[in-house]
Amino acid sequence: MPPSSRPPASAVRLDRLLAWARARLGDREDAVAVLGAALGLSRTQCLARPETPLAGAALRRAVAAVRACRRGLPLAYWLGEWAFHELTLAVNPATLVPRPDTERLVERALVLGDALGRRPRVVDLGTGSGCIALALARQRPRWRITAVDSSTAALAVARVNAARLGLGGIRWRLSDWWAALPGECFELILSNPPYVATADPHFPDLVHEPRRALHGGPDGLRAVERLLADSAAHLAPGGVLLIEIGYNQAPRALALARRHGWVGLRVHPDLAGRPRLLEAHRRALPPRR
Ligand SMILES: C[S@@+](CC[C@H](N)C(=O)[O-])C[C@H]1O[C@@H](n2cnc3c(N)ncnc32)[C@H](O)[C@@H]1O
């Protein structure tokens, strides 16, 4: 089959299908990822067995996946699930597709939480698919985890994920950030908030994911500043705030954190080495006399 615009007809070898997908998607790795996901093959299997014959339902599924991705639909929505930190999570257009960079937040939270005591109270603000809360619950079943989102539809997906994974201990709350948690304190406050700026050149490519999960206002920092302003009142003594930020936001996020009284500031790199994870603490109060 030539890599023409014509989809494969009856039966076809895997390498010919790959060439067709590559011509549609413009990149070999994307083509391998999409076909691998649609056919249930690993990257190695896709590349090491070029002569594998494909026909019938498997072929139709592969062609449909390539066409959907060519239209810009995230592969995760087409599949209805996505991998995150050793979990397979249901996702749909009500939820952001969990990104590998957010696994860094989970990893840092695990380190910090372990240092904070045996059963830290943890809150995941803007939980979406529930990925952060669920990854932590899987790794640390004894932690007391709360997860909030302002989207009823996203919370429904998160609850489904919890049920599917058998992770029953998380408190799920419909809330505008802290609104539904008055007076509650946590040792770990975590958030991957919406932080894409209105003029960000990547924004127009993200049309399939919910705007409320992405858009952080004109400079992208509206939710980040709100969390920096409001979270101190909910931080238990010795606690830590972790917020994922955009690739170009570290200097402004640090300035906002200082303005709102946070100390011990660090920015951890993402998988590509860009400064993407803001860590902030509060100054310990002097001991009472
Ligand atoms: C960038 S997504 C992160 C989703 C998920 N935690 C992840 O890492 O994939 C931000 C999430 O914040 C939620 N959100 C936006 N505004 C909110 C608000 N005012 N209060 C609570 N959640 C909010 C969105 O619905 C969305 O699920």
Report the structural category.
alpha/beta
> Given the structure, what is the number of helices?
11
CATH topology of the largest domain: Rossmann fold
Mean pLDDT: 93
Helix content: 25-40%
- Helix and strand string, N-terminal first? EHHHEHHEEHEHEHEEHHEHEE
- Quote the distance from N terminus to C terminus: 82 Å
Please, could you describe this protein's structure?
It is built from eleven helices and eleven strands. It is α/β, with parallel strands linked by helices and 289 residues long. The protein has two domains: 11-71, no CATH class; 81-281, Vaccinia Virus protein VP39 (Rossmann fold, 3-Layer(aba) Sandwich), CATH 3.40.50. The strands form three sheets. It has a seven-stranded mixed beta sheet, sandwiched between helices. A two-stranded antiparallel ribbon has the order 1-2. Strands 3-4 form a two-stranded antiparallel ribbon. The radius of gyration is 21 Å and the shape is elongated. The model has no long low-confidence stretch (mean pLDDT 93). The site of S-adenosylmethionine has 22 residues, from helix 7, strand 6 and helix 9. Residues 96, 98, 102, 126-129, 131-132, 148-151, 154, 175-177, 192-194, 212-213 line the site of S-adenosylmethionine (SAM).
Topology summary:
Elements: E1 11-13, H1 14-25, H2 28-39, H3 43-48, E2 53-55, H4 56-70, H5 75-79, E3 81-84, E4 87-90, H6 102-116, E5 121-125, H7 131-139, E6 144-149, H8 152-165, E7 171-174, E8 186-191, H9 211-214, H10 222-230, E9 235-244, H11 250-259, E10 263-269, E11 275-281
Parallel strand pairs: 5-6, 5-8, 6-7, 8-9
Antiparallel strand pairs: 1-2, 3-4, 9-11, 10-11
Helix pairs in contact: 1-2, 2-4, 6-7
